[in-house]
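Journal club side-thread
Mid-discussion, someone asked how the predicted structure for our own chain would compare to the paper's figures. Pasting it here so we can look after the session.
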Amino acid sequence: MPSTAPLHLAAEIGGPPRYDPGHHIGLARLAERGALDFVTLGDSFARPGPDALAVLSRVAPTTGRIGLVPTVTTTHTEPFHVSSAVATLDWVSRGRAGWHVDVSTTEAEARLFGRRPAAPAEELWREAGEAADVGARLWDSWEDDAEIRDVATGRFIDRAKLHHVDFEGASFSVRGPAIVPRPPQGHPVTVVDGTGGPARETAARHADVALVRATAPERAAAIRTDLRRRAAVYGRDPDTLRVLVALTVDLGDAETAPEPGLESGPPLAAGGSYYRGGPVDLAELITQWHRGGAVDGFHLTPGRDLERIVNGTVALLQHRGLFRTFYPGGTLREHLGLARPANRYALEGGRA
């Protein structure tokens, strides 16, 4: 049966290091004009360039609706600091923040910090899962009405509505509570690449959005089904997980026919699926994969082609009634059709 679920679209706005904020602001505004769900900004300790989370905090006041999702590495960083920074991005963007969870695997990156040697991927992704878990607990450590700001009595916080998370994991322990009030979204959106390996387990357990790489709709559908099955095993409602195909896009210099299959595209340095063709053909591919129920949407890495994607591919999808022309809500969770999570501590206290 053809899918009638909303189509979700996102785009990467990274590339070679740029230190002019106007560059990223312009790309984010362009994506916002196309009503994309969110933009991502890649980052790692293996390359030079500004910190992605700080850059998108600068972009936030210059945009009004687009979701902002920086890559945040959980290796060699402190979960308490990470959760505070992501919560701050949610506040300065008025509820449009997410974070793309990633790990640092190389010995060269480990030497930058000097705290520990590089670890196996399984260990790093287990640690990333713990970081996502403790982040959510810290965001809940302030109940929504913990701030009372009673000038007459001099009381700023209702201490009964602050909670120690008392988290004990294999890699770290965190007592809490957070130093930043509960974010506008409750929990900023968590994005994980769930294509395969140990990262898929972390995506199934913690992600709101899973990015996957596939060269055919059948493969994408199989990964999506597996992620949803694993999410259910962890007690999650599979319908709260959005699965987006990560696609590197080269629209070329003209409206040319696409390569005969994604698998025939040139290899990518980081692996993944590659599309080469024109904006119209890209719209057809997105339509076919989504209508067939293979995926919930696409995350596009366009290189220099974001303008042609927005003004060509996205505009055509909108004209055909397949993608929205405006934002019906204000937060990233609303764009994705995800509810604001209840506060676990308020629920435990019987106040929710």
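Post-session note: Residues 98 and 189 are 4 Å apart (CA to CA).
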